[in-house]
Amino acid sequence: MSFSDYAKNFGGVYSLMLTPFKEDRSIDYDIYPEYVRWQEEQGAHYLFAVCGSSEMKNLTLEEREKLAALTVKHRKKVKVFATANLEPSWHGQLEEIKRIEAAGVDGLVFVTKGYGNDEERLVTYLLELQSHATVPVILYEFPGFSNHLISGSAYKRLVENGNFHAIKDTTCTMQGIKEKIAVQGDSCVLQANIPYLLEAYEAGARGVAATPTTCGTNLFIRMWDSFAAGDMEEARRMHEEIVNLDNALGGAFPATAKYLVNLQGIPMNWYTRGDHVLKDHKLKALRVYHDYAVRNNLMK
User: Fold this and answer.
1) CATH code for position 217
2) Which of 5, 130, 137, 226 could be disulfide-bonded to 234 (CB atoms 3.0-4.6 Å)?
3) 264 within domain boundaries
4) Is 227 helix (H, G, I), strand (E, B) or coil?
5) pTM (global) more than 0.85
């Protein structure tokens, strides 16, 4: 299978979705459909609703379910995945799976729930949980729970024995991602770390699911297309621009990403349910970056 073909087989560019909030921190459900359509227009291969960038740990099950349903409703053709095992109890997670599937998603995402330091428990838990799913499942090493990383040996067992088609790797090391690439088989290892993205593609990673896709999907598509076509000079240039974007977002993500989305024409406030505050100097820095990106045909 060629590199470009993986975009049809659980690889490719996963655009992570932000959750827009009003000033009172209630979800702005009026703006969200516009953002869904905009993300798809950027060329995303998949939309990852209800993710870390969505502030999913700060959302209720009802809110997560509604966001998943709205993503499905307002996409045209792009496939939608959503996290479905955040509830604290086992029975709560089974109910969550049913409700997220009923929202119409094309696939589910399971996080590791902090079991990464106990391979037997992790593998048993995920295999049992996926037996209750009726759609494809991908895995997510979500840093919001400690002990979140999956070893290469555990991933091998999961892809060989379960309905797991991809993993969002967040080891942030080439050693960590190569361990999974070595055993990925027909599945797709997705890189989340920006500095190592090009190196990960060269090593055999088959996609990306990273925070800057929330506001810069088109750059990731341009890098993907260039790499698939063998145009390494352009792939490296796009990687450099993605690193610049990642640095511009800085430590106040996802508020910074929301502001960059706003600058590109989607009237989304930068508010979050965390403790993020964008002061005037940071807003100015983001406007300077956006002006640069517009001048260089990187953003609108």
Assistant:
1) 3.20.20.70
2) 226
3) no
4) helix
5) yes
For residue 174, being part of any structural domain is answered with: yes
Residue 195 maps to a domain: yes
What's the domain count of the chain? 1
Please check the confidence at residue 227 and state whether its pLDDT lies above 90.
yes
Q: Where do the DSSP E strands lie in 43-202?
A: 46-49, 79-83, 107-111, 137-140, 164-169, 188-191
* Cβ atoms of 46 and 73 closer than 8 Å: no
Pairwise CA distance, residues 210 & 217, whole Å? 10
**DSSP class of residue 185?**
T
Percent of the chain whose predicted confidence (pLDDT) is above 70: 100
- Mean pLDDT for the chain? 97
> Which value, to the nearest 10 degrees, does the dihedral of the CA atoms of residues 247, 250, 255, 257 take?
10
For the record, the structure tokens of 52 come out as 């870390």
3-state secondary structure of 48: strand
Determine, yes or no, domain membership for 202. yes
